[in-house]
Amino acid sequence: MFDLRNLTISSTNPCLIVYLIDQSGSMNEKFGNASHTKAIELANAINDVIYEVGLRCISGGGELKNRFELAIIGYGKDGQNGVQSAWEGALTNKWVVSIKNIFDYPLVVENDKPIWIKPYSNGATPMTKAFENARRLCTDWIQWGNHRDCHPPIIINITDGEATDAGNGFNFLRNEIEQIKALSTNYGTVNILNIHISSRIGDRILFPTELRDNNDKFAQLLFETATPLNENMIRLAQNRGYNLQSNARGYIFNGNATDLINFLNIGSNPV
């Protein structure tokens, strides 16, 4: 296994980020003190982080380099089996898209800012099927070209509730995620980050190393399946005011709108 600290993400050695976004009916609820629903806040946050990723790929000469490839998988929206690529417009039905193609084909441009996805909130929460699609994408991506010499894929899952297709004791979902965690490049295994967002006021759990006295079994599952943050992610989280330890996991429970934005930016900055 190579040392991740020696890796530079480039157009020759890109990084894959897969965003799994909950589009179920409960996402139509207001997001805490925010003025919009969870679905709208999530779509805004995803569009913002895509834009930020693209800006980081602009070279000193002003050229947009294909340093990142992105996938957005929406789950919910169309019922229990509603899992699909969330890209729209010219990118509809595409799964993994290079950052240059993403910037070439926004859905719309509003106030000089590109928009790629719209908010949706309908149906159930087929999270297991979303992770199944993420596993397929990561497997194929790792096996293509020189990608074994690239940063391992990053999966960022954003949800506001329990999966409706997880099986008894969440076994289906757990098994799917464990298969993903077995995938690797020469720089390590796939990264999985889970954030549970909530409109309820309650204790927030932010990048923990363990969960104590938590009776929420699904919260426990999301924690257990999240992987530890790497050194750069930890530094970014600390710079944003989070107090965390070196073995902190990529996990937030009962996150608010600010946590969501921070979480996406931390997870999308691997090196």
From TrEMBL:
InterPro entries: VWF_A (IPR002035), vWFA_dom_sf (IPR036465). Gene3D superfamilies: von Willebrand factor, type A domain. Residues 16-212 form the VWFA domain. SUPFAM superfamilies: vWA-like (SSF53300). This is VWFA domain-containing protein. It comes from Runella rosea.
